[in-house]
Amino acid sequence: MDTKLFVVQDIEKDAPLLQEAADILKRGGLVAIPTETVYGLAADALNPEAVKKIFAAKGRPADNPLIVHIAEFEEIYGLASQVPESAKILAERFWPGPLTMIVPKGESIPDITSAGLPTVAIRMPSHPIAREIIRRSCPLAAPSANLSGSPSTTTAQHCIHDLGGRVDAIVDGGECRFGVESTVITLAGKKPRLLRPGAITLEELRDALGEVEMDKAVLSQIDPGERVSSPGMKYKHYAPKAKVVIVDGDSESFLRFLNEQTGEGIFGLVFSGEEERANKPCVVYGENDEDVTQAHRLFAALRELDERGAKLVYARCPHKEGVGLAVYNRLLRAAAFEEITL
Ligand code: AMP
Ligand code: MG
Question: Any idea what the Cα angle at residue 303 is, between residues 299 and 305, rounded to 5°?
Fold first, then answer.
């Protein structure tokens, strides 16, 4: 199929392009759209035939449910069978923004969207282009706009690379601000529980709600066959073709370790400035101790490693608090949980 590219620079001037994207979605087509987290591969969340195409285009396993994106808080009442008080508190503080809430699903949500679960994931993005397209179309199911397993896309070029020829259109809205997928919290159990860390931090969620548990899958590998709260967590994810190993240590000891390694195709995935002291080629992902810049760069850096032909990558370990927890969670999956402590 021919994939149209809509370059949107101005919400008002480019309104006809946004309308064309919305019309494709209303007709049951697929459009990759920019959000403040990563690019999303959108389809009408309430149209099972349209949602089916998302799974096919991404090669996504059918038991991995999708996040439904809305433009106004009130839309949640048409999608959820129950809106807990905690959801209202979180929406008040963090919506529109990079937070997804899991709530009991309403009858309007087709089984394919929630992958047969009795719950639905809902998010109100803050990106003006995403919001405008939702406003002009309908609630949108939109997982990350990458091929399943590969790093999520943070530019339209990444989307063209993964999905060109597989989707009806790609809306280019520039680079995504945060660079990692939304924080996911479930409000459908007895206690609120963090399923996936993101730019809204565990600390901020606890500040808003009091007690918030952290799901085991955030930091540890799930055995095949084990029951998981968030199916997405069990799959291989974000992985470049190169083998990645996380190396936990300070800048000095990391560089000593990297410089001692011998072999073909070894790369460092490092913080800014460290590449100058390394004797191997390096890709930079953010600044030391600036988790927000690390999140912003991580997926593009993983893609760059592949483009440069890396075979074995030793990656600097981020800290594990705040947004660093989201960076660490993604890097753990890119590394298939392989970590060396110096
Ligand atoms: P993606 O949109 O590709 O970033 O993936 C969405 C993430 O949200 C995946 O990890 C899903 O497993 C998770 N998710 C979506 N819906 C639900 C749900 N109803 N219950 C638990 N996790 C969900
Ligand atoms: Mg994804």
Answer: 115
